[in-house]
């Protein structure tokens, strides 16, 4: 237990005096009553657990914003980081290089879908999306197609919160305030299986939505640089899931209409969907693949954009041709982050991670099955190690709870009181735990979530 000067209350007070937290209405931390959101100071992590300054433990059911793969303070990754820190912490990446960046690029090319032969580093997921969007536009410009200035995104999509990434996102909560500053994409209807027509299978929904994508491309392909999608799961949009056949068909459409296919695997890559990369389940290679989050096992910021030799060659010219891709970040190719990413990939190589994930996913499926009968649950869906429960006011009509009632917040608060980090997306309670979680810990996580759901739909937080 911590003393009073370094316990939860003291650290929270110091925090709230100066800090402004992301994706947060800071007023929630100051109000009184059941909806007050506590500020939780974490002092250490142990596997799938976080420990606060008062010694309370929280099972990390969301992998700390979907980043942590192999547990907090993983000793193998920590040792690699410490070793690299004693050697080289950073160097400019323009005109200089280092072995961790080289080796990581080689390994990423080896494990990603065929044809992705070039690697461009950035330092977070939104930055990776910015790179891919700019690179796609600039490719077409270099090829003499300056008329291609637009992008196609899916309804309900989310790709980040910098202006370019937000431009191709369609979650109103994030987008509407900044709409005057943003590019306007063409929006294609999402293949989200939850929104399928009555009696329609996920595969049939995907096929129908591909027909609508075709119509959009027939009208706008000449002005379109690329289609950008989150393969299989639209995460921040509510964990919307769809059939891999959509990706197969989209690859064919992009080829037919000469537009790029950007795969945003920032959240779904590195084993989350049951395969190392979600695109594998459709047997497709995108023109750009954006990676981050799990790339470093949750240790350090790093992102990578992989693309093809053909796209790279469109920028390769004499200096005076003005075709270079002049985009940079101060910490591009940071050696510490690259070394950590290499160790993360080595764990996939050395251990049966995906096999164990399949066992954990099957256990999670069994534990969530009873929720399908809950009177306020409209859907229980799962793709690999990502599962989601859709809470509604009326199961028959799927009428949602009013947003202002903040039912999901009650699940979050219940989780904190009972030792679990569950952070619903609106009224969607989801599970995306680290891969080191045990079946017993999954049981605890699900039991806590179910109890939280019971309290939330009753309109009270409970003890």
From TrEMBL:
Q: Where does the chain bind pyridoxal 5'-phosphate?
A: 125-126, 264, 329-330
Q: Mind telling me which Pfam families this protein's record contains?
A: Aminotran_3
Q: Which reaction does it catalyse?
A: (8S)-8-amino-7-oxononanoate + S-adenosyl-L-methionine = S-adenosyl-4-methylsulfanyl-2-oxobutanoate + (7R,8S)-7,8-diammoniononanoate
Q: List-wise, which residues carry N6-(pyridoxal phosphate)lysine?
A: 293
Q: Which residues bind substrate?
A: 65, 158, 293, 328, 423
- Report the pathway entry: Cofactor biosynthesis; biotin biosynthesis; 7,8-diaminononanoate from 8-amino-7-oxononanoate (SAM route): step 1/1
| Listed cofactors | pyridoxal 5'-phosphate
Q: Where is this chain's protein located in or outside the cell? A: Cytoplasm
MF annotations from Gene Ontology: adenosylmethionine-8-amino-7-oxononanoate transaminase activity
Assigned EC number: 2.6.1.62
**Class of enzymatic activity (EC top level):** transferase
Tell me the keywords, alphabetical order: Aminotransferase, Biotin biosynthesis, Cytoplasm, Pyridoxal phosphate, S-adenosyl-L-methionine, Transferase
List site positions: Participates in the substrate recognition with KAPA and in a stacking interaction with the adenine ring of SAM.
23
Among its keywords, does the record have S-adenosyl-L-methionine? Answer: yes
What this chain does, per the record?
Catalyzes the transfer of the alpha-amino group from S-adenosyl-L-methionine (SAM) to 7-keto-8-aminopelargonic acid (KAPA) to form 7,8-diaminopelargonic acid (DAPA). It is the only aminotransferase known to utilize SAM as an amino donor.
The entry's family comment says:
Belongs to the class-III pyridoxal-phosphate-dependent aminotransferase family. BioA subfamily.
Q: Share what the entry says about its subunit structure, partners included.
A: Homodimer.
| Stated name of the protein | Adenosylmethionine-8-amino-7-oxononanoate aminotransferase
Q: Which organism is it from?
A: Rhodanobacter terrae
Its taxonomic placement starts with: Bacteria, Pseudomonadati, Pseudomonadota, Gammaproteobacteria, Lysobacterales
Q: Which gene encodes it?
A: bioA
């Amino acid at each position: 237990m911590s003393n009073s000067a370094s316990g939860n209350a003291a650290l929270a007070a110091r925090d709230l005096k100066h800090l402004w937290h992301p994706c947060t209405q800071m007023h929630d931390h100051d109000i009184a009553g059941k909806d007050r959101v506590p500020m939780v100071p974490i002092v250490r992590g142990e596997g799938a657990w976080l420990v606060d300054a008062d010694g309370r433990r929280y099972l990390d059911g969301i992998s700390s914003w979907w980043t942590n793969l192999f547990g907090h303070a993983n000793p193998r990754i920590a040792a690699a980081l410490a070793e690299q820190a004693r050697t080289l912490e950073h160097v400019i990446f323009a005109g200089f290089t280092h072995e961790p960046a080289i080796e990581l690029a080689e390994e990423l090319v080896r494990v990603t879908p065929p044809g992705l032969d070039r690697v461009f580093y950035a330092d977070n997921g939104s930055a990776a999306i910015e790179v891919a969007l700019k690179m796609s536009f600039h490719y077409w410009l270099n090829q003499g197609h300056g008329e291609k200035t637009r992008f196609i995104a899916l309804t309900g999509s989310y790709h980040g919160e910098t202006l370019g990434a937000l431009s191709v996102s369609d979650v109103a909560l994030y987008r509407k305030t900044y709409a005057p500053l943003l590019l306007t994409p063409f929006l294609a209807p999402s293949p989200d299986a939850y929104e399928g027509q009555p009696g329609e299978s996920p595969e049939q929904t995907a096929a129908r939505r591909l027909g609508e994508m075709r119509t959009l491309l027939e009208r706008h392909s000449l002005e379109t640089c690329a289609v950008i999608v989150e393969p299989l799961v639209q995460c921040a949009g509510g964990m919307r899931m769809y059939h891999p056949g959509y990706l197969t068909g989209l690859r064919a459409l992009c080829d037919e209409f000469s537009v790029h296919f950007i795969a945003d695997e920032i959240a779904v890559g590195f084993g989350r969907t049951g395969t190392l990369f979600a695109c594998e389940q459709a047997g497709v290679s995108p023109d750009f693949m954006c990676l981050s989050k799990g790339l470093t096992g949750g240790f350090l910021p790093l992102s990578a954009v992989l693309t093809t030799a053909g796209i790279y060659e469109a920028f390769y010219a004499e200096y005076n041709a003005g075709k270079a891709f002049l985009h940079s970040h101060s910490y591009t190719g940071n050696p510490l982050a690259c070394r950590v990413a290499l160790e993360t990939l080595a764990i996939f190589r050395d251990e049966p991670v995906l096999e164990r994930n399949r066992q954990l996913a099957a256990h999670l499926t069994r534990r969530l099955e009873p929720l399908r009968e809950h009177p306020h649950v409209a859907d229980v869906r799962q793709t690999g190690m990502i599962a989601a429960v859709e809470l509604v006011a009326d199961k028959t009509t799927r009428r949602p709870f009013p947003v202002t009632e903040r039912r999901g917040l009650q699940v979050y608060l219940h989780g904190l009181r009972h030792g679990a980090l569950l952070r619903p997306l609106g009224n969607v309670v989801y599970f995306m735990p680290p891969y080191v979680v045990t079946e017993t810990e999954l049981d605890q996580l699900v039991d806590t979530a179910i109890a939280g759901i019971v309290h939330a739909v009753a309109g009270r937080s409970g003890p």
